[in-house]
Amino acid sequence: MASAWDLFDEWSKTKINKSFATRESIRVSAKHLKPYLEKITVDEINQIWWQNVYVADKLKSGSRKFFNDWKWLTNFLKFSYKAGYTKNQSMLENPDLPSDEGIYLSDDEIEALRQFANDDLKLQIELGFRHFMRRSEVLLLEWREINFKKAMIELPAIRTKIRKARKIPISKSVLNALFERKSKSTSEYVFPSLKSNGRSIGRTGNDTAWKLAIKRANSSTERVNPKATFHDLRHSGLTRAFAASNKYAEICAVAGLSIQMAQKTYLHFQTDHLKFAADLV
């Protein structure tokens, strides 16, 4: 009988036409799952195995988020059931604790991050904060996706989370920074890997620089929430944009999300944003 890994590998190949971010997420989860799935059949995957073997073993080496592993393993189990590889579809629980819906970074925190970031991270911060770009969209950005003549980043559908092409207007200061960077670049990527000019730095390639910027800021007189992530730049930028303008549909089109999702997850209005309400009635 085929191992669970053989079937998982077969399932992963059906995702070849998904976005790069999806394929990369599956690849990373597969790397963690493979040693475990090679030892069992698909019928042996159940909640007891998941919680007492896989999750318990992974937690021995420290805290870890299991959402992606859980998501792709659950998708694989659905595939296996529909394909007739197993008679029962096991249901697995996501062991992760509820996560916060993002952190709003103040003007002082944004400025501190800019001050203590290296040159690459400074540009990445502007793309995340002022242009509402997701981290993978920033770090995997290619020069061919930038239309300098129109001052526009043109992301193809395969590069966006919702699989729809998106156009992102570029501010003048960022356009100038990109133009200067392009004149010195010999890579097809805006942020190439330090090890290979033919690759990007990867979806999580600025982790070290981000953490170092926060550490340096908090070692000085400036303070930045130590739990802040790069994605919080998008949350913080969108909150400011919604507070400053009523062109919500246009803002969401640039950000690549629905108004409903923006209201549910991304907006973190502060007291200063809401003071006007007292004078409306």
Write the layout of secondary structure elements.
Layout: H1 4-12, H2 20-37, H3 47-59, H4 67-82, H5 107-116, H6 119-129, H7 135-139, E1 146-147, E2 152-155, E3 166-169, H8 172-184, H9 207-219, H10 231-244, H11 248-255, H12 259-266, H13 271-274
Antiparallel strand pairs: 1-2, 2-3
Order of helices and strands: HHHHHHHEEEHHHHHH
**Radius of gyration, in angstroms, nearest whole number:** 22 Å
Give the count of helical stretches.
Answer: 13
Question: What fraction of the residues are assigned to beta strands by DSSP?
Answer: under 5%
Q: Based on helices, strands and strand pairing, what is the structural class?
A: mainly alpha
Main beta-sheet annotation: 3 strands, antiparallel
Cross-sheet strand order for the largest sheet: 1-2-3
Helix percentage? 40-55%
3D shape: globular
Give the domain tally.
2
CATH level-1 class of the largest domain = Mainly Alpha
CATH architecture verdict of the largest domain: Orthogonal Bundle
Supply the CATH superfamily name of the largest domain: Intergrase catalytic core
Oligomer: single chain
Report on the structure:
The protein folds into 2 domains: 4-82; 107-275, Orthogonal Bundle (hpI Integrase, Chain A). The chain contains 13 helices and 3 strands, in the order αααααααβββαααααα. It has helices at residues 4-12, 20-37, 47-59, 67-82, 107-116, 119-129, 135-139, 172-184, 207-219, 231-244, 248-255, 259-266, 271-274; strands at 146-147, 152-155, 166-169. Strands 1-2-3 form a 3-stranded antiparallel β-sheet. The longest helix has 18 residues, at 20-37. The protein is globular and about 60 Å long.
